[in-house]
Specification:
nine-stranded mixed sheet, binds adenosine-5'-diphosphate, about 20% strand, Rossmann fold, alpha/beta, binds alpha-D-glucopyranose, about 475 residues
């Protein structure tokens, strides 16, 4: 069947990224094109993206609103980074020094308005359609909203008229709910009559994510296991009731990874494959040199936001036996100052065995996945998780907490799985220091048996993690909605 989709988000690779949301939003259009769906992505024109709008860049204005939360908003259509885009230029909201969500002084105080504006203009494009270059009319059949930043888009369609456009709300992380005080109701262009517990009201205030969850025609999340988890209080973080009430329209569609960007065969330095692993050994040596490490046992890597979600605070208590047993750790991450300091303290405690880079560095992350023996993902919750899948692809064995998408993507090296020859990694539960320490001990033991280790690595590298299956699932979802 096929059709048109407007994908609305706050980040998309290769233009702007703080986490996995960007990887997924950036990869979906190409993945869906194969299934006959034409997807355009709408993003705010943050300061680093405004250059694209300069004369000669091929972007043209397709919609304008004068009073868009205190200034003029203009939607431009064009192509960049392999994506068909709508960029919302509203300098009073987005032309700022800093990241998408915060500046030097913390979160922007007007984030509710900033992303309401994005959602508002997206809903207008969906409802009214636009005229692209050469007079081509473009109107989506489906608006696909990602996370709280786009949560008001389905709500605006529901409350101000859908204009024939259906909507999907995808939850990439339910911990980010887009809270705002109730007094912003009218300012956010939401109907006062809907301010009650079965609709917009959320513990006395507002939540852009809840607004999307109650108004979208379909809800998806990024793994089947997380779809089940978020209907329970431990993982739903307040929204479990909302999801349970809409469970008939909730589904979990596992993320894929962009195998064009993430493939050991395609790496410019030290490429390798499951059959020819010499490049991996070289990459390991290079990584040790780069990080000042000398690790006799398994060299584990961790590439992550350093926040409570990611469970990195468990490492100080969980690592000693692992290091004693020959293991080592290379970390690349940034996030909470406390967690950063904790990581640096580990490096100081075990020089030559633990080494830490604080920062965000895409190229370095590739070298870590290439050179590592194993990748750690000890998350407390993880809607899908991408680094364990990069690990699988690179033969860098994932050691993960058995939550969310981590449990959906890694087959634990249990005796049964080893006997059946299907294991791809190590999982542990619950997410605490004791279970993590045990899993790390198990890692040392598996690594010591090179026959088992090679088998694990072969299995991991053979696992299908690309987008083909999931793109089919999204296409089926869209088609079901139009029928
Ligand atoms: P989340 O979106 O919750 O942060 P994911 O595992 O889905 O978790 O995605 C994280 C993405 O961000 C991956 O592509 C990972 O490689 C990347 N990433 C995280 N921290 C860094 C960093 N410090 N440097 C480079 N890439 C990073
Ligand atoms: C979120 C989640 C992560 C997921 C990503 C992409 O950031 O924390 O688990 O992989 O979104 O869907």
């Amino acid at each position: 069947m096929g059709g048109r989709v407007l994908s609305v988000a706050s980040e998309a690779v290769p233009l702007i990224k703080t986490g996995g949301l960007a990887d997924v939003v950036g990869a979906l259009p190409a993945a869906l094109a194969g299934a006959g769906w034409e997807m355009r992505v709408m993003l705010p024109a943050y300061r680093p993206l405004r250059g694209l709008l300069a004369r000669g860049g091929g972007f043209r204005e397709v919609m304008r609103e004068d009073g868009l939360w205190g200034g003029e908003g203009r939607v431009f259509a064009g192509e960049a980074g392999g994506l068909s885009l709508f960029l919302l230029d509203a300098p009073h909201l987005y032309d700022r020094e800093g990241g998408p969500y915060h500046g030097p002084g913390g979160d922007w105080g007007d984030n509710a308005q900033r992303f309401a504006a994005l959602s508002w203009m997206a809903a207008r494009v969906a409802r009214e359609g636009v005229t692209l270059a050469r007079g081509k009319a473009w109107k989506p059949d489906i608006l696909h909203a990602h996370d709280w930043q786009a949560g008001l888009a389905p709500a605006y369609l529901a409350y101000h008229g859908p204009g024939g456009c259906a909507s999907v709300m995808t939850v990439h992380n339910i911990a980010f709910q887009g809270h705002a005080p109730a007094r912003l109701l009218a300012e956010l262009r939401l109907p006062p009559a809907e301010f009650h517990a079965d609709a917009l009201e959320y513990y006395g205030g507002l939540s852009s994510l809840k607004a999307g969850l109650i108004t979208a025609d379909r809800i998806t999340t990024v793994s089947p296991n997380y779809a089940d988890e978020i209907m329970r209080p431990e993982f739903g973080l307040g929204l479990q009731g909302v999801l349970a009430a809409r469970s008939t329209v909730v589904s979990g569609i596992l993320n894929g990874i962009d195998t064009g960007l993430w493939s050991p065969e395609a790496e410019p330095e030290n490429p390798y494959s499951a059959r020819a692993l010499a490049g991996k050994a070289k990459a390991r040596a290079g990584l040790q040199a780069e990080f000042g490490l000398s690790v006799p046992g398994p060299l584990t890597v961790l590439v992550s936001r350093l926040t409570d979600q990611k469970g990195v605070d468990l490492l100080p208590a969980a690592l000693p036996d692992f290091i004693e047993g020959g293991g080592g750790l290379a970390v690349l991450g940034s996030g909470d100052p406390g967690a950063e300091a904790q990581m640096l303290a580990l490096a100081a405690r075990w020089p030559g065995r633990v080494s830490v880079r604080i920062g965000y560095d895409e190229a370095l992350s590739h070298r870590l996945f290439q050179g590592g023996d194993a990748v750690l993902v000890p998350s407390r919750f993880e809607p899908c998780g991408l680094t364990q899948m990069y690990g699988l692809r690179y033969g860098t064995i994932p050691l993960v907490a058995a939550v969310g998408g981590l449990a959906d993507t890694v087959i634990h090296a249990s005796p049964a799985a080893l006997a059946a020859g299907v294991a791809t990694g190590i999982t542990f539960w619950p997410t605490d220091a004791l279970a993590l320490a045990q899993a790390l001990r198990r890692l040392n033991a598996l690594y010591a048996d090179q026959k088992i280790w090679s088998r694990l690595r072969r299995n991991a590298m053979a696992q299908e993690n690309g987008w083909s299956v999931s793109a089919g699932a999204y296409a089926a979802l869209y088609e079901g909605m139009l029928r």
